[in-house]
Amino acid sequence: MDGSLNMVGYGLAAIGPGVGIGLIFAAYISGVARQPEARGTLQGIAILGFALAEALAIIGIGLAFAL
Q: Which of 6, 33, 44, 45 could form a disulfide linkage to 64, CB 3.0–4.6 angstroms apart?
């Protein structure tokens, strides 16, 4: 087998943030559908959650290239 297993490991590790982002926005859509007047508050929380979940993926790819 030729190549680096770091990228295979990153591909598997990217599943977690992908699922997390999906759950964050599913909860956001559900919350806005139930209470449209809370859209502004929920949007800020959803963006913060998205940024934190995406940071895990960015750290993971950084480590994959570094190692």
A: 6
